[in-house]
Amino acid sequence: MGGCGLKGLVWIVGAGPGDPDLITVKGLRLLSEAHLVVYAGSLINRELLHRCPEGCEVLDSSKMTLAEQVRVMADRALKGLNVVRLHTGDPSLYGAIGEQIRELKALGVECRIVPGVSSLQGAAAALGIEYTVPGGTQTLVCTRLPGRTPVPSKEDLRVYASTGATLALFLSSDMGDEISRLCMEGGLPGDTPAAWVYRATWPDQRVGTAKLRELGQRMKAEHVNRQALIIVGRCVEESGTSLLYDPRFSHMYRKAHDEGPEGGMG
Ligand code: SAH
């Protein structure tokens, strides 16, 4: 597949956040050549599945145990068939791919990963913002609140809030109140801007902003308690002014007019 025709190979493909046009060209090609596709039921846009060839076996992973998924993928891959495991967004964020890769490897099956557009990028596009703020924070933290999956105690949200970095919260859509409380305990002012993006890049995408102290209340009023990314930080309101286009700032494509301050490439 993809010109390599290797036996015993599974492609882990990032499907993008929702809009089916946001899968990569490579991901789409692999999908169009697949004999078996296992996809994450709740968050993958089914329109993508129309790109599978006729006769392709298509299985919803949400109805299967990990062992069942691994068994069927390994079986087809070892027969030399083209196998795609489709993950929402980018597989590197909360994708739980490690266990699949390990178990497939134990059966003699290698995995290769095709990156995807994460809901992280989908949400920034929906909000029209830049997470890193010229002249402001240069850091983005991707995290979540503990749910059934614990979060290490050293990664308490208060610790990150205390830095003033942009915070992107996955898997925490129903915990707006808790996010406000912890961020404020960490030292962020209650009027810090925050936003949520529900189903970024889907046709029913919804976006809202609130002061940090009102985040939970506002999300409840808008009935947003799932499939949302929450962003906390000044980036929601401020875009800053980049040094990149400052005439005093030189970079590899342009010479400075004057001696400029240090900066970064966008
Ligand atoms: N690998 C995925 C994240 C999987 S975890 C990615 O890169 O996007 C699932 C969480 O991701 C959800 O609880 C939600 O917080 C976020 N998420 C996934 N798709 C989303 C979308 N289209 N819009 C907003 N948030 C989304």
UniProtKB/TrEMBL annotation:
The keyword S-adenosyl-L-methionine applies. GO terms for biological process: cobalamin biosynthetic process; methylation. GO terms for molecular function: precorrin-4 C11-methyltransferase activity. Pathway: Cofactor biosynthesis; adenosylcobalamin biosynthesis. Keywords: Cobalamin biosynthesis, Methyltransferase, S-adenosyl-L-methionine, Transferase. Pfam families: TP_methylase. Residues 10-215 form the Tetrapyrrole methylase domain. SUPFAM superfamilies: Tetrapyrrole methylase. NCBIfam families: cobM_cbiF. Belongs to the precorrin methyltransferase family. This is Precorrin-4 C11-methyltransferase. It comes from Thermanaerovibrio velox DSM 12556.
